[in-house]
Amino acid sequence: xxxxxxxxxxxxxxxxxxxxxxxxxxxxxxxxxxxxxxxxxxxxxxxxxxxxxxxxxxxxxxxxxxxxxxxxxxxxxxxxxxxxxxxxxxxxxxxxxxxxxxxxxxxxxxxxxxxxxxxxxxxxxxxxxxxxxxxxxxxxxxxxxxxxxxxxxxxxxxxxxxxxxxxxxxxxxxxxxxxxxxxxxxxxxxxxxxxxxxxxxxxxxxxxxxxxxxxxxxxxxxxxxxxxxxxxxxxxxxxxxxxxxxxxxxxxxxxxxxxxxxxxxxxxxxxxxxxxxxxxxxxxxxxxxxxxxxxxxxxxxxxxxxxxxxxxxxxxxxxxxxxxxxxxxxxxxxxxxxxxxxxxxxxxxxxxxxxxxxxxxxxxxxxxxxxxxxxxxxxxxxxxxxxxxxxxxxxxxxxxxxxxxxxxxxxxxxxxxxxxxxxxxxxxxxxxxxxxxxxxxxxxxxxxxxxxxxxxxxxxxxxxxxxxxxxxxxxxxxxxxxxxxxxxxxxxxxxxxxxxxxxxxxxxxxxxxxxxxxxxxxxxxxxxxxxxxxxxxxxxxxxxxxxxx
Length: 549
Prior knowledge:
- This protein has about 550 residues and is α+β, with helices and mostly antiparallel strands.
- Among the domains are: about 1-55 and about 100-205, Dipeptide-binding Protein, domain 1, CATH 3.90.76; about 315-520, Dipeptide-binding Protein, Domain 3 (Dipeptide-binding Protein, domain 3), CATH 3.10.105.10.
- The chain has 14 helices and 22 strands.
- Strands 1-10-9-8 form a four-stranded mixed β-sheet, with no helix packed on it. The protein has a four-stranded antiparallel β-sheet with strand order 4-5-7-6, with helices on one face. A three-stranded antiparallel β-sheet has the order 11-20-12.
- α7 (about 325-335) runs antiparallel to α9 and α13 (about 480-490) packs antiparallel against α14.
- The model is unreliable at about 1-55 (pLDDT under 50).
């Protein structure tokens, strides 16, 4: 039976993996997705609608204080015309306004959101998704199957430009069926045991049937969603102001509708000096500091949490442009890396990486490809460059573009110095963060940034497949595509582990990315602010946050 096979696969992978830090572990929990998750009881998806006439008064014994304004940050909030085509991350805020079908936390197991439960047939090619009852959009219209079906077809439409289309390449519009007002059926062209993991990320925010006119206009009536907050105002790249949705469908621990706070103010453009002053001076509640100020914050009584989320800042080359159309160039640059030194100088609390996208604390991780640590080999790098016509009389000259924020300037400098050992001359072009990211996927050679996604192959699918939705390297390797397809449909843990080994090896040998370390993320929380311990991969947990009087 598929249910038994999937459960066994999950258990064995979890046992084989190094799970010392579950915050980043890709435990292949989606192998449980095909099972009926019976998750209607889940606390995060209490299906008692907030608008019930007989709703009990809030339970003061829960100790939760309602009201107040949460002041926080998010680093990159440009205007986005269509949230389904959002490739920059404004939707991390948008997820508090318009929700996806499932939510994903640190355990990486899909939890009910707008989807109440789900099950699949024996080979995970037919999925039935049951939706929450009694949910309304913030304009008062009911949520149901027609809304989800419209969104699915919108994502699949090539004219939309949605990254979700690549994740759903096994689904066609003809495979979408309405069973009733709260049930849909999806018939896939091939097995996909991880299907529900498609539906947690910000490009899968659910719009009402027919879509949005201009979701990020800053006008409340345009930002229609089922989420706990509504837009009060939005100034792109500067400031979001959100107010509580008084008719939100989920209940808090005190028995009343979430959220607990009245308002959330989200600003961008912070540097660590400003973060330090604001947190210590009582001008902010939850911020994302860099490693340089972590100890000072702790010494000042500010709680700082550390999360290993699979976040990488790879150096990426466009293989459609010279000189990176010559594979020897990136192979040589990979050999110039002293990975331990990079990590120690740039992200001391991070983890050494080996030019692939799977961290060692993921259960999908294959240690076989990293045996020996891939040491720096300057002579090997010089030999490869010589094969391509570069040497002391004709040095390889590169321009590396980077944003001026966080640890990227330090990383650029370390890369420059290590590459120089092989005779490579690197010029660093540094840009303000907004200017740099506005040209993402345009730079020939740059320090990029990718948040960790689940399953562990999600970012690889988005970035490195042939004609990938978010390709910034313009890379294509049919062998990699074939392995990724096999992973989607493989249940047996040993077979799947072998496929992950192949992915890591292909990335190391061929992909135009340098990944010498995995970064960690920090969250600083002032005293009196109660923010959930979990790391959310599906939007911020502002709805569950409360502030002491």
